């Protein structure tokens, strides 16, 4: 019995962390050699690797809510292209907002369609607006620079959310959040050591992270305040940027990340305390 449990835990670790991080490391390294401006593809490849092995019932073309995570990741890449092509910040925000609405609608409509199209659209607009605000806050004046805190804040938020979802909501969504953290870390590691801008990866990672958090409320019935609290933790990177001016050194990155780690740890702890099941987990 213990041997079977150990094997199951090893497989879960491989699917949730090892495969996504390896895929992200390889894909990001290849893109830095080929064309540095497309490095966010490394994160997407890493996450999709995790999605394929974790969500074994994945269908393409998508049929169920979780299947549309593939589309969300791809829409994140489209948002990067739109941000690159459009000239003004206002147009970039509008384009990203529109793509987020599409992403959230596709992720939530299969579950909410019995409540009517209006409900799905309302959820998509509200979720998209919240994501745009968070993205704007954490990338403001950092986009295109060597400040890796915005991307690291996504990794920390995903890692903190994973156990909360796994224990209080859905093990599947919890594993996928772990895959987001692993893929983001692999992408960030290569960007850091090759001195490549990692801030572009914030957009597709927020498409996926926001989608998973919203789905965890709709699919796994987690309290809305838990989702909001976890989703807001990346904003702590603003404090880190003020505490320590970011450069290419790992020391400044670690010091700058401390507010994020503390904030995410406290939020995750409180959320776990609230959602912990009354019965034994075993």
From TrEMBL:
<feature type="transmembrane region" description="Helical">
    <location>
        <begin position="91"/>
        <end position="108"/>
    </location>
</feature>
<feature type="transmembrane region" description="Helical">
    <location>
        <begin position="151"/>
        <end position="170"/>
    </location>
</feature>
<feature type="transmembrane region" description="Helical">
    <location>
        <begin position="37"/>
        <end position="58"/>
    </location>
</feature>
<keyword id="KW-0472">Membrane</keyword>
<feature type="transmembrane region" description="Helical">
    <location>
        <begin position="120"/>
        <end position="139"/>
    </location>
</feature>
<feature type="transmembrane region" description="Helical">
    <location>
        <begin position="224"/>
        <end position="241"/>
    </location>
</feature>
<keyword id="KW-0812">Transmembrane</keyword>
<feature type="transmembrane region" description="Helical">
    <location>
        <begin position="12"/>
        <end position="30"/>
    </location>
</feature>
<feature type="transmembrane region" description="Helical">
    <location>
        <begin position="64"/>
        <end position="84"/>
    </location>
</feature>
<feature type="transmembrane region" description="Helical">
    <location>
        <begin position="201"/>
        <end position="218"/>
    </location>
</feature>
<protein>
    <submittedName>
        <fullName>Uncharacterized protein</fullName>
    </submittedName>
</protein>
<feature type="transmembrane region" description="Helical">
    <location>
        <begin position="253"/>
        <end position="276"/>
    </location>
</feature>
<feature type="transmembrane region" description="Helical">
    <location>
        <begin position="176"/>
        <end position="194"/>
    </location>
</feature>
<keyword id="KW-1133">Transmembrane helix</keyword>
